[in-house]
Automatic annotation (TrEMBL):
Membrane spanning residue stretches: 362-387
SUPFAM superfamilies: Kelch motif
Keywords of this entry: Kelch repeat, Membrane, Repeat, Signal, Transmembrane, Transmembrane helix
Protein name: Galactose oxidase
Top-level taxon of origin: Eukaryota
Domain Attractin/MKLN-like beta-propeller span(s) in chain numbering: 95-369
Keyword Protein biosynthesis attributed: no
Name of a matching Pfam family: Beta-prop_ATRN-LZTR1
Residues annotated as signal peptide: 1-18
Length: 411
């Protein structure tokens, strides 16, 4: 009976979730409709598979084979990529750039998750360099933005997803972080860039960017600026993970080349601090070029290369429970019903950082003041009229008799 039970368990695990993704780095991860879609990557050569993880059901990360994987590699139209990026537009995942093993490489390809189909859109525009790699895209109301992509590429390109037109922007304040950075959209107006550098993986001439001043790109005006940070400023790093938790106004950065720490950045005050994690866990060695993504009340970290002497690619997965702000912990079990803790917004006394509805509040206050004054004026006017009408010896009975006899108002 014991052997039959073991057989049934093994059949369930290996039969339903037969696909196990092999180790890789430089992979993209995008969450759409309770599925995390993983594409491409590098494991000695560019990986040719495409698959998703079902996050609508519970799973554990200590047995990768038991996780609910589904392989989509057999769907025609897959472009083999590594060092690329991907952004979501509705039910489409748009894949951009990277290294491609294709005889006719496509800078842009699209996967529709609803109909499970690939397409190769015909785009137009100016100056579209095919060799953009180790990049991150950001999707906003104005389109999809991609910065850099090579040591000699210091421009921003934007894809108008409605018309499939690429536009190139450049500026005198563009940062020297064309590869290996992370990019986060803040308030749908600015893109914050963390880390990165030049001459990625080319050795002695490598250059990092300080995390004391962070580049900021304004998507409304297509201009660059920088923001000063304070607190426990981390060492420069590349190929790290950066996950934005908008409910907490906080970016968590993980691992990466040249550093092994995990830190947080307050996106309201731009203050760095060491992440408050209550237990030991995560990767036993620091990683770089891995995937990291917020799903429910967890940050999922997977794949990547070990930042040690082995420099091996992995298919390990780690879960950080972030359900309570600044009280994070490493876990191995994913619960799809768990939610992030509600956090009240921080009060502020600065007039420059009033919430977006502050003007309506001010208008309401002014309106109330004028309304009160108008009411007072009406009352005073009525009182004056009464005094003029009846004099100082007003008596209601006398007034009534006089009005009846003369049918004229008393003055």
């Amino acid at each position: 009976m014991k052997f039959i039970l073991i057989f049934i368990i093994n059949f369930y695990i290996n039969g339903i979730y037969a696909f196990v993704p092999p180790p890789r780095a430089e992979v993209t991860a995008n969450l759409v409709n309770n599925r995390i879609y993983f594409n491409g990557g590098w494991n000695g050569s560019s990986s040719s598979d495409f698959f998703y993880l079902d996050v609508s059901v519970p799973f554990t990360t200590n047995n990768v084979a038991s996780m609910p994987w589904t392989d989509l590699s057999s769907i025609p139209g897959l472009i083999i990529r590594s060092g690329h990026t991907a952004c979501i537009n509705g039910t489409n995942i748009i894949y951009i750039g990277g290294f491609m093993n294709e005889t006719d490489p496509k800078f842009t390809s699209v996967f529709d998750v609803t109909i499970q189909k690939w397409s190769m859109p015909v785009t137009s525009g100016n100056l579209i360099p095919i060799e953009r790699h180790y990049i991150h895209c950001v999707s906003s109301r104005n389109g999809i933005y991609v910065y850099g992509g090579g040591d000699d590429v210091l421009s921003m390109i934007r894809l108008d997803v409605s018309n499939l037109i690429w536009t190139t922007f450049s500026g005198s304040l563009a940062p020297l972080v064309p590869v290996g950075y992370s990019a986060t959209l803040l308030n749908d107006t600015s893109i914050l860039y963390i880390g990165g550098g030049t001459n990625l993986r080319l050795g002695a001439n490598f250059s990092y960017h300080s995390l004391e001043q962070l580049p900021l790109y304004n998507i409304n005006y297509n201009t660059w600026s920088s923001v000063a940070t304070s607190g426990s400023i981390p060492l420069p790093r590349i190929d790290h993970g950066a996950v934005f938790i908008p409910q907490y106004n906080q970016i968590l950065i993980f691992y990466g080349s040249n550093d092994t720490s995990i830190l947080t950045l307050d996106t309201l005050k731009f203050v760095w601090s060491v992440a408050s994690i209550s237990n030991i866990g995560g990767s036993p060695t620091s990683l770089f070029s891995f995937a990291s993504i917020l799903v429910g009340a967890y940050i999922l970290i997977g794949f990547g290369r070990s930042n040690d002497s082995t420099n091996l690619v992995t298919n390990n997965f780690f879960l950080l429970d972030v359900s309570q702000k600044d009280n994070y912990k490493w876990v191995t079990t994913y619960d799809p019903t768990k939610q992030l803790q509600s956090v009240q917004p921080n009060p502020t006394t600065s007039t420059s950082s009033l919430p977006s509805n502050s003007s309506s509040n001010i208008a309401a206050i002014i309106g109330g003041i004028f309304g009160g004054l108008a009411g007072l004026i009406v009352l005073i006017t009525i009182a004056v009229l009464i005094v003029k009408r009846y004099g100082h010896s007003y008596h209601p009975d006398l007034v009534t008799l006089q009005e009846k006899s003369s049918n004229q108002p008393i003055t």
